[in-house]
């Protein structure tokens, strides 16, 4: 395995471009395929791209905040000490890989936004304490936990179909999570990945001579200096803990109300609210909170300027019918035994071009549910096959890796050699789950 991962890393280093170049190539490719495989003209595809370009604007802002707010929280003195204390207990590189993967898997199964940020922050803190651990594999392990998110508590497809009045309720009805997230096949997939992936990642550890340790410059923290205090209201208010206490009380009161009335409902907005409120409280003063926020926002440029291109690709895939063409290819070769498996594979392919769980469901659901009805297949299991396909190929799609890479200070090519084998390994487990359950 060490030899194979070394080859994979070498190939990725030479062939995988920067994520912006990757999305630019995908844009051109989808435009070309739309012209060739659908009735769309080149002008049509350009219009679809332009119309969809800002389709993920709200989501882009959510991702910017989850990354920046996670940074702010992690850089608060108390939280930093908490992460450092846990990381300091880890002594061996092998233990570091196993623990980071396990923490990431649990966090992502609970909530993907929480898991993406916490996993990367924890991995980076471990890199400060554990010597001779491969930093690339450490961050790849933190990201690998993301593969279980769509089969977890915050999976957008299972939560969508469990909601009254969802877009496809007239076809499949309202499907409770007992028929999606908590089914034997879904729990089998999640548990097998959860208990074996940490050790699989450890198995990929390179030989000691090939280990790439963290660049000390990535761990260096700049000390923030503040101007001397003045006897003015502005100076006092910036340093006062009074506003922090008041805003903290307001925020905590809302969170208590939210969980008391809606149960353990963790959507991305609530995760962001938790990060921001705790960040404000733990930094103690507005001045320190704003300084941390200013530093954190520097890591979000990749998201700001790349997500619109994926929205444009999604616009082309949806409006041209290209996503339906891909889905129909897999339906054509499916039978009663392989339908869920090929639904999973088709979703994995579409995810390269539509890396949004909700967006992919909107694109694929009409054709896949129609096929499920014709074959007498279970609608809920069909939905979960799409969900797992959406999560699966994220392992080699740089879109979702951007937050973790921004935190770690790495490039996509640094971790994708390892992530390729995570894709293969988890793909086998997921395939077994849909074939034999």
UniProtKB/TrEMBL annotation:
InterPro entries: SCFA_transpt_AtoE (IPR006160). GO terms for cellular component: plasma membrane. Keywords: Membrane, Transmembrane, Transmembrane helix. The chain crosses the membrane at residues 20-40, 52-74, 94-123, 135-161, 181-200, 241-260, 266-286, 307-331, 337-354, 415-436. This is Short-chain fatty acids transporter. It comes from Ureibacillus xyleni.
């Amino acid at each position: 395995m060490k030899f194979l991962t070394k080859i994979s890393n070498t190939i990725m280093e030479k062939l995988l471009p920067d994520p912006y170049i990757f999305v630019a190539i995908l844009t051109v490719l989808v435009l070309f395929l739309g012209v060739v495989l659908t009735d769309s003209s080149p002008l049509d595809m350009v219009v679809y791209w332009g119309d969809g370009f800002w389709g993920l604007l709200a989501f882009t802002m959510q991702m910017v905040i989850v990354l920046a707010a996670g940074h702010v929280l992690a850089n608060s003195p108390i939280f930093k000490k908490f992460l450092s204390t846990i990381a300091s207990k880890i002594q061996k590189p092998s233990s570091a890989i196993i623990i980071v993967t396990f923490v990431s898997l649990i966090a992502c199964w609970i909530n993907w936004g929480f898991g993406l940020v916490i996993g990367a922050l924890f991995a980076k803190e471990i890199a400060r304490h554990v010597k001779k651990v491969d930093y690339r594999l450490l961050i790849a392990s933190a990201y690998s936990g993301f593969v279980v998110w769509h089969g977890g508590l915050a999976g957008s497809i299972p939560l969508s179909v469990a909601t009254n009045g969802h877009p496809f309720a007239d076809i499949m009805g309202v499907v409770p999570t007992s028929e999606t997230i908590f089914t034997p096949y879904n729990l089998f997939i999640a548990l097998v990945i959860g208990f074996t992936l940490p050790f699989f990642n450890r198995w990929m550890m390179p030989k000691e001579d090939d280990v790439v340790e963290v660049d000390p410059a990535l761990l260096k923290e700049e000390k923030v200096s503040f101007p001397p205090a003045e006897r003015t209201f502005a100076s006092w208010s910036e340093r006062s803990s009074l506003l922090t206490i008041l805003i903290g009380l307001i925020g905590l009161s809302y969170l208590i109300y939210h969980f008391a009335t809606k149960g353990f409902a963790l959507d991305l907005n609530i995760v962001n609210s938790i990060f921001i409120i705790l960040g404000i409280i733990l930094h103690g003063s507005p001045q320190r909170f704003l300084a941390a926020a200013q530093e954190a926002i520097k890591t979000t440029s990749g998201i700001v300027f790349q997500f619109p291109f994926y929205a444009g690709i999604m616009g082309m895939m949806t409006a041209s019918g290209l996503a339906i063409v891909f889905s129909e290819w897999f339906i054509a070769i499916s039978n009663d035994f392989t339908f869920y498996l090929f639904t999973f594979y088709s979703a994995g392919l579409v995810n390269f071009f539509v890396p949004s769980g909700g967006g992919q469901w909107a694109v694929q659901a009409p054709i896949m549910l129609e096929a499920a009805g014709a074959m007498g297949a279970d609608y809920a299991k069909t939905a979960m096959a799409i969900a797992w396909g959406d999560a699966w190929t994220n392992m080699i799609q740089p879109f979702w890796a951007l937050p973790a890479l921004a935190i770690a200070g790495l490039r996509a090519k640094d971790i994708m050699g390892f992530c390729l084998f995570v894709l293969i390994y988890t793909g086998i487990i997921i395939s077994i789950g849909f074939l034999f359950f």
